[in-house]
Specification:
This protein has one domain. The chain is built from 5 helices and no strands.
Length: 131
């Protein structure tokens, strides 16, 4: 399998993860634990609208990923967002995480996947090429 084909598959996988977390888990509230996490970290008064905002932001991230527009910048933003979010959750709400303290391991694996896809498989590209 070529690097281009691997990258295309990984790009769809990464975008799908953002859509699932944004749309299904947060916007549609099919996983209420996400709103509980937001409530515990940012307060209960606006936890639902904030959870929806975060979910919509994740959907926008998926769209950005699929467009491949400034893909290296996108990968860096994903890595920073996932690392920051998971560190905050690790410190503040470990008891609400699906895998508890192990969540950080899955976050690091996801970060590694994003890095591998963009900076190893696509090390020579940085232009707008829609998939």
């Amino acid at each position: 399998m070529t690097n281009e084909k691997k990258s295309k598959i990984l790009t769809y996988l990464i975008a799908t993860l953002w859509i699932v977390n944004g749309l299904y888990c947060k916007v549609l509230n099919l996983v209420p634990r996400h709103e509980e996490i937001v409530a515990r970290i940012l307060g209960e008064d606006y936890s639902r609208p904030l959870t929806i905002f975060i979910g919509l932001s994740e959907i926008i991230m998926a769209i950005w990923i699929l467009t491949r527009f400034k893909s290296k910048l996108n990968a860096i933003v994903q890595i920073v967002v996932v690392a920051t979010m998971n560190i905050i959750e690790f410190v503040a709400v470990t008891d609400l995480l699906l895998w508890g303290k192990l969540n950080i391991v899955f976050a690091l694996l996801f970060i590694g996947l994003v890095y591998y896809n963009e900076f190893i498989l696509n090390k020579n590209t940085n232009s707008f090429t829609a998939i």
